[in-house]
Amino acid sequence: MKALVINQFGGPERLQVSDYAMPSSKRRGVLIRVHAAGVNPVDYKIRNGSMKWITGRKFPRILGFDVAGTIEQADSGSKHKPGDRVFAMLPFTGGGYAEFVAVAEKYVYSIPKMISYEEAAATPLAALTAYQAFLKTNSLEAGKKVLINGASGGVGSFAVQIARAMGLEVTAVTSSKNVEFAAQLGAHRVIDYTREDFTKTGLRFDTVFDAVAKSSFPKCKGILNKNGQYITTVPNNGLFRHMPANFLRSKKASYILVKPSGGDLAIIADLIEKGQVKAVVEKTYPMDEGGAAHQLLESQRVRGKLVLVNTF
Ligand SMILES: NC(=O)c1ccc[n+]([C@@H]2O[C@H](COP(=O)([O-])OP(=O)(O)OC[C@H]3O[C@@H](n4cnc5c(N)ncnc54)[C@H](OP(=O)(O)O)[C@@H]3O)[C@@H](O)[C@H]2O)c1
Prior knowledge:
Low-confidence stretches: none
Order of helices and strands: EEHEHHEEEEEHHEHEHEEHEHEHEHE
Number of domains: 2
CATH topology of the largest domain: Quinone Oxidoreductase, Chain A, domain 1
Distance between the termini: 9 Å
Radius of gyration: 19 Å
Number of helices: 11
Bound molecules: NADP nicotinamide-adenine-dinucleotide phosphate
Shape: globular
CATH architecture of the largest domain: Alpha-Beta Complex
Number of strands: 16
CATH superfamily of the largest domain: Medium-chain alcohol dehydrogenases, catalytic domain
């Protein structure tokens, strides 16, 4: 099969189309013919080597954790059959930028009828991150107040919609150009961070979800209600220094590490079917132009998601 691979760490130009051994569903579960693959910041972080302490230096490597496509092969005992439309967040091995991927069935779910492969591929990793982050705060019942920093990005755009679906009162933080966008996603209030520091408005929140990890627990502590939680998507040493004291404080510092889960994806699919959640795809690229998609995503200015369409 054809795949977009890296043979060494480096810039977007390292993404090269190459022939690659066909994955086997025998070992891994179902074989998916990939119609579209979502692009996430973790992809360029692996590509440029900034995660090599986790990934190691094994090459060639196929990037990509989000796929949408059709079942090509499945066991007779599988709940999916050839031709079914499915999407998945792949486990840590990745491999989504390819014609085919094999994945355990427990990570796979049926694509809601009303959405395209591109929208489906844009969904799993980012939506699961937002959903699992809110699950961490089990006190987040309807009416509680949540602030979402980076509300226009991949994770943030899902977080706003999922928080609304959970009945939370949503305050979004974006730059000026995305204020209207965040309001359209369902935010009750939008703070433009180029005009106002969201930690100095006098407002208080039960959860601050720092979807873009541009703030910190010390900065946000003052705007948390009693028993409030700061959750970031990118933990750093500063956060790890504050976490051990969580049991001494009513206000908690924490982070989310998304896990692939067909069960959680089923909940997201249900929200999509009810019209409460929808992926926003800013741009699609043919898969062999994945480098251009990485370059744009690395600017950290993308609204919603970027998706690679399989043209191999
Ligand atoms: N731990 C996990 O499991 C996990 C899972 C998913 C993602 N992540 C990490 O989470 C981060 C965000 O992911 P993503 O997919 O949402 O990224 P993304 O789509 O690239 O985020 C882009 C958005 O960030 C916003 N932004 C940039 N600078 C900002 C600032 N100073 N304040 C507020 N917003 C700002 C931009 O909006 P404006 O143009 O309006 O500023 C843009 O819409 C990445 O570092 C990613 O690796 C971690």
